[in-house]
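dumping this here so i dont lose it
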């Protein structure tokens, strides 16, 4: 059985403000913005090239057991790019407040920059240059074929 991570519900206080932020500032694609069942609106957004989306909803948490996470309580969400300087320039051009890239080591995968959404959910953007020649979907397909 394969298990794919495809959607992460994200706690936010204002769905429209968050949708606009992720669409306009971060460049995510709006896949769904509708009432999926009576009283439950879902906005699903996907980063360009990603197989995993985020879902914003005002009542989405009522369908799950356990405590409801507070808006802004998610930290360490991570995006990967092949060229962090180009990504930094693009995000600044979109009006996103983002840190300068920080290289923690000379290795591929050791350069990061950071931003927060309007509620304070924290994101990292990691440069992983290897993905320009070895896209994740191809690596995973090769692994699945070998197994």
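and the seq i came up w/
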């Amino acid at each position: 059985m394969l298990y794919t991570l495809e959607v992460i519900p994200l706690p936010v206080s204002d769905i429209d403000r968050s949708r606009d932020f992720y669409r306009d500032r971060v460049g995510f694609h709006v896949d769904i913005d509708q009432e999926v069942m009576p009283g439950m609106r879902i906005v699903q957004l996907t980063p360009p090239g990603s197989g995993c989306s985020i879902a914003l909803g005002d009542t989405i948490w009522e369908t799950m057991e356990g405590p409801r996470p507070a808006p802004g309580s998610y930290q360490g969400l991570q995006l990967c790019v092949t060229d962090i300087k180009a990504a930094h320039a693009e995000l600044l051009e979109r009006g996103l407040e983002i840190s300068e890239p920080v290289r923690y080591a000379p290795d591929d995968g050791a350069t990061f920059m950071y931003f927060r959404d309007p509620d304070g959910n924290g994101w990292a953007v990691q440069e992983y240059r290897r993905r320009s020649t070895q896209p994740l979907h191809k690596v995973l397909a090769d692994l699945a074929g070998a197994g």
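Helices lie at 15-25, 84-93, 136-146.
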